[in-house]
Amino acid sequence: MEFNNILVEIDANIAFITIDRPQKLNALNIDTIEELHEAFKSLNNNKNVKVIIITGSGEKAFVAGADISEFAHFSVLEGAELAREGQYKLFDFIENLETPVIAAINGFALGGGLELAMAAHFRVASSNAKMGLPEVSLGVIPGYGGTQRLPQLVGKGKAMELIMTAGMITADEAKDWGLVNYVVTQEELLSFCETLAQKIARNSSVAITAAIKSVNANFTNGVNGYNVEIENFGKSFGTNDFKEGTTAFLEKRRPNFE
Ligand code: COA
Predict the structure, then answer these.
(1) How remote is the CA of residue 88 from the centroid of ligand 1, in Å?
(2) pTM
(3) Whose alpha carbon is nearest atom 10 of ligand 1?
(4) How many other C-beta atoms can be found within 10 angstroms of the C-beta atom of residue 153?
């Protein structure tokens, strides 16, 4: 698929996806969501790619939200469909991806932009970044998982406040809240994320996928996360990576995972 709204690069075993609509502060229109879906799917199927880093083009914004101009005239049914399709194709898709995804938040992450960052497995922000869910100021609510993932990450009270006030928090506040793991300068952002990605890439991809599934199970309705962990723990014993990892430890050498 040819992309018009995103850039995809692969450097060794780390992939970078850059949302590239800087003139619209990288707002997520339907075409961009479609392209992101295809890019994540194909990178996830590429066995050489161990980690995916997602960021925004330009110095101002990660993503300033869903594209307001696209949904301003939607009906009730169209609104529900927009949220359903978006969650299915992008937000839930990323959260449940087998390949780890890091969000490198390089500026405004608002509405769908913060929801996109929250769907990633963890987040790093540049010091100029600002985050919020301003949807209620537009007469709508977060529809790409924001009412669910924000309370998971920061607790119910802080999530309620951020959503109700439609306010923005700084990168440092987001770190205090546990929404982002690190704050670095904008110049350092991608290389910092790449260093984290390299650390992840040294470990067993098979085990990391099983860990993602087990952690996510805690947040899935009707699923007992402890049971999912037991099952995935057991399955690990049947993998080549387990044999290699434990053998390498006992032989006092670095593992060489397939
Ligand atoms: N949807 C569509 N277009 C958007 C957008 C969005 N979510 N966010 C920004 N843009 C567009 C603006 O319309 C403007 O386009 P134009 O130059 O054709 O008029 C361009 O991006 C630059 O944005 P602008 O508002 O001029 O920049 P700013 O520096 O004055 O303000 C923000 C930056 C992020 C505070 C402001 O753009 C904003 O509030 N955006 C909407 C955030 C939002 O409510 N997101 C949730 C959507 S559900």
Answers:
(1) 25
(2) 0.97
(3) 24
(4) 17
